[in-house]
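Chapter review. Work through the record for Melibiose operon regulatory protein before attempting the end-of-chapter questions.
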Amino acid sequence: MLYQIENRSIPLATGIFSKLSPIPHIHSHLELIYMEEGSCLATVDYQNFLMEKGDLFLSFPNQVHSYHDRSAVKGYLFIFSPDVCRDLKEIFQKKIPCSPIIRSSLLPLALHDHLEIIRSRNESDTYYDKIAAKGYLLALLAELLPLMNLTGSPANHDSVKNVLAYCSENYTKPLTLEQAARELHLNKYYISHIFNERIKISFVDFINCLRVEHACTLLEQGCNITEIAFSSGFSSIRTFNRVFAQNMNMAPRDYIRYKENGAAVPVSYPFLTSAVPAAQS
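Structure tokens for Melibiose operon regulatory protein:
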């Protein structure tokens, strides 16, 4: 399942990805991606950046980010707490990169080998290997950060994070913009502005995207479709079927058949891809 806000307890998670999340999400960790194959449009704090084969992506804590794959993708994905690299923690807390992308031409020649060492050591069962993985990661970041243009972190990160956290905790319930504004003690027009002008979708469309993601997980577990509709926050089966089709380009039963056949599901998320500005270099 794709999460828009994540509470992570693992200090360093490493792995190989073949799919990236199109739903805007946020967490208190850093997220590093090395694109071995394919390309995607990375959106960070409402700006879009084209990430191509051989490029490296690094988002800082509490930056809203999402990805729209432009082709089949594969690469390394590391998500880690600032505490893993304590010598750099103050930088991660007070700065953000003007661009999260480091182009392939600027990266160290041995980057792939370095990433594989971090991944293999971190996924080892040996305590000392895990410690070594953190040391290799710190050394790598010390090489990468000078390649990035860093600026001061904006003052409104907390408000955006609080709004997304509220959505994360309440999307399976009946939820309106007015209710969110009342419980968050924020003006409803300010919340609407966050979604329409900053995240580029409406509050309702964002909530529906989260509900559809939740429904997909339940469909894959073999749950009853009627129960899934209501437990995901939809008020009726009709609304569930309509919104699911808008987001997934297929009916829920077709989604089940795709999964049973082991086929890749062509996810659409039209609300997340409409009105997307041009990518920055």
